[in-house]
Amino acid sequence: MTDHVLVKDVPQYVEKEITLRGWVYNIRKSGKIWFLIFRDGTNWIQCVIVRNEVSEDVFEMKNTLTQESSIEIRGVVKSAPRQAFGYEILVKDIKIFQIAESYPIALKEHGIEFLLDNRHLWLRSHKPHAILTIRSEVEKACRDFFDERDFVLVDSPMFTPNAAEGTTTLFETDYFGRKAYLTQSGQLYSEAAIMAFHKTYCFGPCFRAEKSKTRRHLTEFWMIEPEMAFYDIFDTMDLAEEFVSYLVQRVLKKCQNQLTFLKRDFNRLEAIVPPFPRITYDEAVEILKKKGFNFTWGEDFGAPHETAISEDFDKPIMIWKWPAEAKAFYMKRDPEDERYVLGVDMIAPEGYGEIIGGSQREEDINKLLARLKKENLPEEVFNWFLDIRRYGSVPHAGFGLGLERTLQWICGVHHIRECIPWPRTMVRLNP
Ligand code: 4AD
Ligand code: MG
Predict the structure, then answer these.
(1) Which residue's alpha carbon is nearest to atom 11 within ligand 1?
(2) Which CATH number among 3.30.565.10, 1.20.950.20, 3.40.50.880, 3.30.930.10 corresponds to the domain 119-419?
(3) Which part of the chain is CATH 2.40.50.140?
(4) Could you tell me which CATH class the domain 7-98 is placed in?
(5) Cα separation of 220 and 154, whole Å?
(6) Confidence check: pLDDT of 316 > 90
(7) What is the pLDDT of residues 379-429, one digit of tens each?
(8) Cα radius of gyration rounded to whole Å, the chain
(9) Treating both helix axes as pointing N-terminal to C-terminal, what angle do 383-390 and 187-197 enclose, rounded to 10 degrees?
(10) Are 183 and 157 a contacting pair, CB within 8 Å?
(11) 185 touches ligand 1 (CB under 6 Å)
């Protein structure tokens, strides 16, 4: 069954006869000729059926073929500069795999909840296809970036006894009579792995029981987390900006058609090159105060704050040096002022919010123990993590980039749920 050509490769076969296999996207009829928009998952192409080029049976298929019927088409590739794709097929023969039942997703506007309920079918439409094609390229670029820079991929577990990012968003599960959580972040495991491999990354799903219904939160999302021995907070910010611009430039190079379909502003993405602006938390609070926000020092920023802070910048900004109480237990205290930790958040432009969270890590076991106690985290289950500080502790740092948040920004998509094939939110578990 592999003797067919993919639509994306059609330009290589001008004036040649080829076979295509795929699905009917749309049919338009006009007398002695009819048009079939065909898709095979690699692209869409117009096929032309002319009465005296095909058998009577094939010509009459205009009345039997339905949207999403699966078919095989034999025809000759013609250059067609006026078509979106630049080519069309002059059809010689059509074979039918299956005549599809009445397809629920018609070629008109549908409500978002209806489309999400039918995500298994909606994937076939242009917009999900464009976004998920970009997702695939970004995932590849994530790996390429770290693979090219001497990082070793060390995967972290999905079941864990440890709360890495606070106890309010844990998914708890029964693990043969013991308590386990779905991982919120692979970081703690990466901290152990760099002592074996120097620089590592992990890339996989993370789970957080987010009880807020926002356009930026999923309960299951993907994070890529590099971790580096002998890096400080500044090295980490350098790496983070280099990484994010690498991702954006890769998409600009490889996914022009998809970005064009999504009507993304290329100029805005082309501007995403290092250096990115860096401001401290205190400077960010100053910006908020100047803009009239009534903000209490020590709190974390919410979405409206992030938007207000970042709206004067064309590039992602990095906010660093945070009040300790606003951040996770593992962040290193600022040696110059113990009220602060050496953490960093990267905020995307255009109101897309935080795409990266990272920090230099606390390498002092006593400071870590104090923080665990303060956060009410059980020391026994963190004992293995403390070993990293017992046996050759070194300065180290790392960050995590949220894949879907990053895609949301790069694609210019309003809601994060469109940036993952099968979105999971507080209100959505199906399909
Ligand atoms: O800022 P966070 O919580 O940082 C960590 O988990 C660190 N342990 C990472 C590290 O240093 N290795 O999460 C990192 C990023 C956020 O900036 C955001 O992009 C994404 O993960 N993220 C979410 N994306 C979608 N839905 C959610 N509920 C998310 N929570 C975090
Ligand atoms: Mg964060």
Answers:
(1) 399
(2) 3.30.930.10
(3) 7-98
(4) mainly beta
(5) 20
(6) yes
(7) 999 999 999 999 999 999 999 999 999 999 999 999 999 999 999 999 999
(8) 26
(9) 30
(10) yes
(11) yes
CB atoms within 10 A of CB 272: 23
Arithmetic mean of pLDDT, 107-112:
90
In whole angstroms, give the CA distance from residue 332 to residue 82.
60
For residue 32, what are its two tokens? 């002695």
358 lines ligand 1 (CB under 6 A): yes
Secondary structure (DSSP) of 51-112: GGGS-HHHHGGGGT--TT-EEEEEEEEEE-TTSTTSEEEEEEEEEEEEPPPPPSS-SS---H
Domain with CATH 3.30.930.10 in the chain: 119-419
Atom 24 of ligand 1 has which residue's CA nearest to it? Answer: 402
Rounded-to-integer distance, Cα 323 and Cα 289, Å: 17
For the CA of 217, the nearest ligand: 1
Residue 107, pLDDT > 90, answer: no
Going by pLDDT thresholds of 50, 70 and 90, the confidence category of residue 192 is: very high
Q: Is 210 in the pocket of ligand 1 (CB under 6 A)?
A: yes
- pTM of structure: 0.97
Asked if residue 128 has its Cβ within 6 Å of ligand 1, the reply is no
Q: What is the C-alpha to C-alpha distance for residues 66 and 248, in angstroms, rounded to an integer?
A: 39
Among all ligands shown, which has an atom nearest to the Cα of 224? 1
Q: Is the dihedral of CA 344, 202, 352, 239 positive or negative?
A: positive
Tally of residues, the chain: 431
